[in-house]
Inverse folding.
């Protein structure tokens, strides 16, 4: 198997747009995403290519905290004097950061500002209210296959496919060849980094229940999820389960695929499936890092991988589409449906070869746009 080069050599797809917006937009540019997804590395690449005199602020350093939370224009002006670009890493750690960014933006319009932040930054409301109309937000997820496609050809991507399915696509995982080291890293992410955003943001009464919830979702990958059933298994009420699911979505751990229905009498309309942004996290949560030849969940794992990669593709290429699954009360199902403008596209996602035909009830209601996504054509779908 070919060795993947350091992540510094992988071109993140949003880098060009980040540079363009910092250069021309006149807004605070904010980069969100899960911890360890490469936000700081990407930001440093942007800074290097822009070649501006840059003040790089690490939010852990106390000398910056007092000034950047002061609401004092004099102090703020003194801090950034002589600099063309202000970069703040992990901005959610700075109290009053939103109002202070507003002051800098309004009073020093020539200063370019780039801020990274985790989901707790986004959820807290400290930024949204203060920077209304003054910010441009980007999201960085674990490395996409499309980004790796900038380095490797189709043969090489296929050669690495099992690695991506089992260990996922966090930058550190991609750059680590040793399987034990990969597992240790994924354990660290799943046991600490994932929960920091949630625990920083809210007082969670049952933090261990969040891990139990994630395990249940991991075992139900590709299946409809019942909030009522989850609550019963966890000993939590419905409102608490829904709040935990919302926080996990906003923390870029999972995402929801709702049911698609224009005919509630025949089609399920009030259900959902949950998938993981990273299959490595999904696998480590259930303690199954076995190769595909020794697994009984390959179909679900493949479905998760394809839908997550498609989600990255739509996000990074700024494609407007809504994703769903479709199922009738009679049991007919389609794994993935995309709604683009007024057109509907149906996809059956199979890890092996399949000649399954388009369901008649789908074609009669929504048209004949139907495709099977398998190992022979999946790169066309996600690249």
């Amino acid at each position: 198997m070919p060795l993947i080069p350091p992540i510094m050599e992988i071109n993140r797809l949003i880098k060009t747009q980040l540079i363009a917006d910092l250069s021309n937009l006149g807004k605070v540019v904010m980069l969100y995403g899960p911890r360890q997804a490469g936000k700081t590395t990407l930001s440093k690449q942007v800074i290097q290519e822009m070649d501006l005199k840059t003040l790089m602020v690490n939010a852990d350093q106390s000398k910056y905290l007092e000034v950047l939370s002061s609401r004092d224009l004099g102090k703020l002006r003194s801090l950034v004097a002589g600099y063309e670009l202000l970069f703040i890493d992990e901005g959610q750690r700075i109290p009053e950061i939103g109002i202070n960014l507003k002051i800098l933006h309004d009073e020093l319009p020539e200063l370019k500002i780039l801020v990274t932040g985790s989901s707790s930054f986004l959820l807290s409301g400290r930024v949204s209210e203060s920077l209304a109309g003054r910010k441009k937000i980007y999201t960085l997820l674990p490395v996409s296959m499309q980004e790796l496609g900038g380095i490797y050809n189709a043969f090489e991507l296929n050669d690495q496919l099992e690695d991506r399915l089992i260990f996922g696509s966090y930058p550190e995982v991609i750059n680590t060849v040793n399987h034990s080291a990969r597992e240790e890293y994924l354990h660290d992410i799943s046991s600490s980094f994932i929960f920091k955003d949630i625990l920083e943001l809210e007082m969670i009464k049952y933090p261990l229940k969040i891990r139990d919830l994630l395990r249940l979702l991991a075992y139900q990958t590709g299946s409809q999820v019942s909030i009522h059933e989850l609550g019963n298994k966890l000993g939590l009420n419905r409102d608490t389960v829904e709040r935990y699911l919302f926080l996990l979505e906003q923390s870029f751990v999972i995402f929801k695929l709702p049911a698609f229905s224009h005919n509630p009498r025949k089609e399920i309309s009030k259900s959902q499936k949950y998938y993981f942004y990273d299959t490595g996290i999904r696998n480590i949560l259930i303690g199954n890092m076995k190769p595909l030849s020794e697994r009984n969940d390959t179909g679900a794992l493949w479905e998760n991988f394809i839908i997550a990669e498609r989600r990255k593709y739509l996000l990074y290429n700024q494609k407007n589409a809504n994703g769903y699954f479709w199922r009738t009360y009679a049991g007919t199902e389609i794994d993935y449906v995309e709604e683009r403008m007024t057109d509907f596209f149906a996809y059956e996602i199979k890890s092996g070869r399949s000649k399954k035909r388009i369901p008649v009830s789908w074609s009669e209601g929504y048209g004949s746009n139907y495709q099977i996504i398998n190992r022979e054509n999946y790169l066309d779908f996600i690249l």
